[in-house]
Amino acid sequence: MKKLLFLFLLVLCCACEEDKSVDPTLMPEATTTGQNTLGCLIDGWVHTSGRFGKPYVSTYDEDGNHYVTIGADAGVFTSLHFTLVNPRQGAVCTYINASFDGVKLEDGEAYITRMNGTIISGTFRGGNVTEGRFDIRYSEESEGGEVVY
Predict the structure, then answer these.
(1) In the chain, what are the domain boundaries?
(2) Which residues fall within 8 angstroms of residue 90, CB to CB, at 6 or more apart?
(3) Model confidence over 65-113: pLDDT tens digits?
(4) Beta bridge partners of 39
(5) Quick check: 48 and 24 in contact, CB under 8 A?
(6) What is the pTM of this model?
(7) Whole-angstrom distance, CA of residue 132 vs CA of residue 45
(8) Is residue 53 within 8 Å of 41, Cβ to Cβ?
């Protein structure tokens, strides 16, 4: 039984596709070129997506509103995601349904610096989330699913 557990843990550790070129103690730069980055401070601790894969974007429309959900893995078993309500380039919008590591976060505001159907970039903050930033290349053509490429 111990050998089986050891083998399982070994396979699990080897299966991770962690990008070791990204320093998880540093926030990603605030860019608007589709660098596929997401990061923020939660209670003063840095959480970024770079080492654990690219962030994702999904879009949907409901009750006359346009929603853009942004998320990413921010650790081995940790994820961060939130939903922008009616985002527009150059404008402040609300974000809702934010959660980190399965724990609901307070709603907040996001400022969209670029949104053109292929790139969405901006900053966000609210409650215990500060200095949040994202810059993601995506396509609005595939509504309702993960659409990062």
Answers:
(1) 18-137
(2) 112, 113
(3) 999 999 998 777 889 999 999 999 999 999 999 999 889 999 999 999 9
(4) 48, 133
(5) yes
(6) 0.77
(7) 11
(8) no
